Amino acid sequence: MNQPRHDWQPSNEVVLNSMSTIFSIAISKTVTKAIKDNVPRDKRHQISKQLSSSWSQESNPESFRSRLLVTSLPSPPKITSGNDPLSNEAALVSNNALNGQELLAKQRVLDAYHAEELRQLDHLKNYLSDLESDLARDQAKLEQYSKSNQDVLSSWSAEENTMKQDLQLDQFVEAGEDEGISLAEDELISHFDPNTDADIGGRLEQLQSHLRDILDKSASLRSFNDQVESVYNVLD
């Protein structure tokens, strides 16, 4: 069985009086309607008595008012707003949900909150619209940038092919991993031989002769170095 909540409590006197007022108005309207419908007077009296007994008589333990006196009800919601300027007006709203003036005061508070929420909602909508505009602008720039890059890449590719043709790089044959770079035997780029070249051949011969002279002159020095090394080994 569910336990009653701690914030539930019996109705206060203000609510009970408001309920009694409502009962009286309802009974009065019922009797007035019976008069218009030409209901006999004794019948109208019986209707009024029955309604009063069922609704508002505390002497009748089965009446609505009697049962309301012993029934715990949830507390009406309260509006608290801290330092909000509407808190003073909100504090005027009591727990009596049947008082018309207090309901109007509460309605003013709620309307003020609602207006503020609408203002913030409009601000968020404008902010969202700005974000969507920025996104659309960025997407347009991205598409333009991508197209520009594609044009540049196409231009580079065409320029690369032209340079390969000008430098005859298409004559190179791709080698395996351990073969290094090789040239096609039937398509050599150049047939230059320095040994048979008239200008280079003579210079190479002079250089080779000079190197032989140096080698001959250093022969005695190498022999002396070998002797020194032998003596060093004996002394060591």
Largest sheet: 2 strands, antiparallel
How many distinct beta strands?
4
Strand order of the largest sheet: 1-2
- What is the overall shape? rod-shaped
pLDDT averaged residue by residue: 77
- Global Rg: 56 Å
What fraction strand? under 5%
pLDDT under 50 segments (min length 5)? 88-93
| Count, helices | 6
Please trace the helix and strand order, writing H or E for each element: EHHHEHHEEH
Helix/strand-derived class? Answer: mainly alpha
Keywords: Coiled coil
Coiled coil: 121-148
InterPro entries: CAD_CENP-Q (IPR025212)
Note the topology.
Blueprint: E1 8-10, H1 13-36, H2 41-55, H3 64-69, E2 72-74, H4 87-90, H5 100-166, E3 172-173, E4 182-183, H6 198-235
Antiparallel strand pairs: 1-2, 3-4
Pfam families: CENP-Q
Keywords: Coiled coil
InterPro entries: CAD_CENP-Q
